[in-house]
C-alpha cells in the first residue's frame, strides 16, 4: 500500500484569504515601526542626538582654481591634500570625495576627480559647482545654546574686588621655598 504525503487544501481557506492576512500583517509592521519612532522621540517632542559625520576631503573652489595643467603630482597634493581614493587600477586618477551629514540638514556629497598624464596634471572634473570657502563655512550653521551670552568684561567694582583678594592669595606662594634647579638627565639614545 502506497502512501502519499501531499496534503489537500482545507475547506474554507482560499489563497485570497491567505494573501489578505499577509497584507494585514505587513501593514501592521509599518505602523509598528512608525509607532516605535514616535515613542523613541516621545511623540516628536524630542529627538535622539545624532553626531555629525564628516568624511573625506573638503575641496573648495579656490583650491581648484589654484590648479594649473602641467603641475606635478606633489604640487597638486600640496594644494588638495591626500586623495581619499587612489586606485592602482587607475594610476592616473585621484578622487577627492567629501560627505557631511548633520541632523536636521540635507546631507552634502561632492566628488572632485583629478586626472594626470604621466606625472603632470591634465584636467580636473567636479560633479557640480564647488562652493567657495566662505560659502562652505556659511553652509555649516553653528549650534549655539539658547539664552543670553555671558558678559566677558569686568566693571571697576569687580576689578577692585579682585585686586583686593590678589595680595592675600600671593602671600602664601611667596612663603614657599624656591623650586629646585633643573636636573640634568642622560641622553635618551646611546652615542
Task: Characterize this entry briefly.
By secondary structure, the chain is α+β, with helices and mostly antiparallel strands. Helices cover 35% and strands 16% of the residues.
Task: Assign the CATH architecture of the domain at 53-138.
Answer: 2-Layer Sandwich
What's the CATH topology name of the domain at 53-138? Beta-lactamase Inhibitory Protein, Chain:B, domain 1
Shape: extended
The mean pLDDT is 77
Number of strands: 4
Rg value: 34 Å
Widest beta sheet: strand line-up: 1-2-3-4
Would you tell me the structural class of the helices and strands? Answer: alpha+beta
Strand content of the residues, in percent? Answer: 15-25%
Termini Cα gap: 98 Å
What share of residues is helical? Answer: 25-40%
Order of helices and strands: HEHHEEEHH
Largest sheet: 4 strands, antiparallel
pLDDT below 50 for ≥5 consecutive residues: which ranges? none
Amino acid at each position: 500500500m502506497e502512501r502519499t504525503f501531499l496534503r489537500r487544501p482545507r475547506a474554507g481557506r482560499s489563497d485570497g484569504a491567505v494573501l489578505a492576512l499577509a497584507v494585514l500583517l505587513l501593514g501592521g509592521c509599518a505602523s509598528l515601526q512608525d509607532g516605535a519612532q514616535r515613542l523613541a522621540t516621545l511623540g516628536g517632542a524630542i529627538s535622539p542626538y545624532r553626531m555629525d559625520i564628516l568624511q573625506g576631503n573638503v575641496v573648495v573652489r579656490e583650491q581648484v582654481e589654484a590648479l594649473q595643467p602641467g603641475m606635478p603630482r606633489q604640487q597638486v597634493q600640496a594644494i588638495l591634500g591626500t586623495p581619499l581614493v587612489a586606485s592602482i587600477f587607475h594610476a592616473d586618477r585621484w578622487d577627492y570625495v567629501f560627505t557631511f551629514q548633520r541632523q536636521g540638514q540635507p546631507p552634502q556629497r561632492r566628488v572632485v576627480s583629478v586626472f594626470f598624464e604621466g606625472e603632470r596634471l591634465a584636467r580636473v572634473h567636479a560633479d557640480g559647482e564647488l562652493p567657495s570657502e566662505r560659502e562652505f563655512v556659511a553652509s555649516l550653521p553653528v549650534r549655539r545654546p539658547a539664552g543670553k551670552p555671558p558678559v566677558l568684561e569686568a566693571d571697576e567694582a569687580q576689578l577692585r574686588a579682585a585686586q583686593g583678594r590678589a595680595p592675600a592669595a600671593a602671600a602664601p606662594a611667596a612663603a614657599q621655598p624656591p623650586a629646585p634647579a633643573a636636573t640634568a638627565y642622560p641622553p635618551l639614545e646611546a652615542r
